[in-house]
Amino acid sequence: MAGFFRSSKRSFSSLTEQEILAIGIAAEEDDARIYLAYADDLRERYPASAKVFEDMAEVEDTHRKTLIDMHRKRFGERIPLIRREHVSGFYERKPDWLRKNLSLEAIRQEAEAMEAQAYRFYVEAAKQISDAGTRQLLGDLALAEQGHEDIARMLEGKHTPESVKEEEDATARRQFVLTYVQPGLAGLMDGSVSTLAPIFAAAFATQDTWQTFLVGLSASVGAGISMGFTEAAHDDGKISGRGSPIKRGLACGIMTAIGGLGHALPYLIPDFWTATITAGIVVFFELWAIAFIQNRYMETPFLRAAFQVVIGGSLVLAAGILIGNG
Length: 326
Prior knowledge:
single chain; 2 domains
């Protein structure tokens, strides 16, 4: 269960112009390496797409050199050690071994997200730059990254443009998933699974349905508040494109509370065993709902999602029962 904490990451608005250039240099270098890794992975299966990624890596390297030249001109040879992972709002880049043997569609979506984030980075960075030459450079790089995003969208093998309606629907769905589904699913999983142990431990330890309900209520509401604030605080959405932090925080917090309250409310029933059996049935539907959402929106195979959720939930539930009977 997530709790309150003070983030060690810098806010984007606190960056100096030199630090913005340093992040851009490191980001272009990292993205070039990622594209080359994609190219190596795709070369045997999709040689044409592999060539596209090699070309994109070459362009990213050109961007890096241009940014280094600008840094040398304005600030000298020493580039500060600051990277994207040091700033709130950036997606974490996965290491190469987690990208092996991905489908072309999955790689295309990852590349599209990378370029979209790079575009937003340069747009927001330009707003914080006072030097005219640097500001123009960042604006040019934003346009270049936007062009890369268009290329990434074509990598699925469709060489004819989609209709405006289809593109708008796809964009809206992607934004809906980023803003509501992902944080809501994280909250539902946290609320449903992490509260199983304290609620059922309290139930079997006290055999008192009202006391169990109070434990469940406090755990659910507390987790909802904590998860909601954590989600809203760690990413303002400007660079990641995940949307309003308030909307994401509400989605995450509300779904966390709902996940815990689902199996806490049955303990308003005075009879212990009736309440416990009802709570167990509710837990089954909660876990099924999590698996359904993962399958529907996150494209996780339903059986795999169900297996993972059921195993995890069962272990937490068993732990709660054992502790309660201890």
